[in-house]
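The following block was generated as part of the benchmark described in Methods. Ligand: zinc ion.
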Amino acid sequence: MIGAVDIGGTKIAAGVVDENGRILSKAECATDVPRGFADAMRRTTEMLAQCAGQSRVSLHGIGIGCTGPVDPETGSLGNVNLLPGWEGGNPVEKLSTEFGVPAAMENDADAAGLAEAVWGAGRGKARLVYVTISTGIGASVILEGKVYRGAGGCHPEIGHHVVEPSGPLCSCGARGCWEALASGPSMVDWIRTNAPESCWSPDLSAKVICAQAREGEEWARRAVEREAYYLAVGLANLVSVFTPDAIVLGGGIMKSASLFLDRIHEVIRENCRLVPFERVEISLASLGPDVGLIGAAQVWHHHFAA
Ligand SMILES: [Zn+2]
């Protein structure tokens, strides 16, 4: 039984996950970043202990997924955008000491990618790219069951590869990143910049836009068309660069996948003629909204199991 911890910018989830990737118990709390790292670890410890007690198990190890950048070798947090003031904190050291068991951590996209590779839609695929599209775009490359790492063990930032050099400024400082053009908030930004004010509702979100597009609302339809195109251009780039056995798509935006998939296949056919694109399976993530927790558990297996 593995204790799983998923640390995001808005919430921290903790739980107990069995050897088949099933969640036995879980709890969550607000991240509450300003209260600081130590306080968050205290709350995480309480949640883990409570979950273990509820499931009547003792933990063999603890796996952690955390919004990045994080250092999977040392277990310490880098300068994480969403967790200001937490840099240098080490959840691996902290939780491992607290529970007296080995712990390991990965970037949350790598954690989710590992979960889909072992227990989800990517099972049996030797070369897998996992992409999650929601408030940002995260991705993970998994080769023969191992997370691909860059220089110094770094996590490559596929969400920040440039798809439109003259595109909007991204939070990372570059222009026209995939994330700046195809994340959920970019759909909302596009409507606010281009559509007449009568089309904006205060609760405008990617989810609302997708629902409006289904009802045939013209501006929403155009926003979806644009989203599908940029999503597709980025995915076609991944097909050209990696030609993996599969690309697994997850994240909130993919709840509306039927609005985007035809266009994705069309652009891949147009842009990827020099590689056998038809061998790249495009599939939807299968582990659902708890993929972060399930992935955190898989991080432990990835580090410590045979
Ligand atoms: Zn960027």
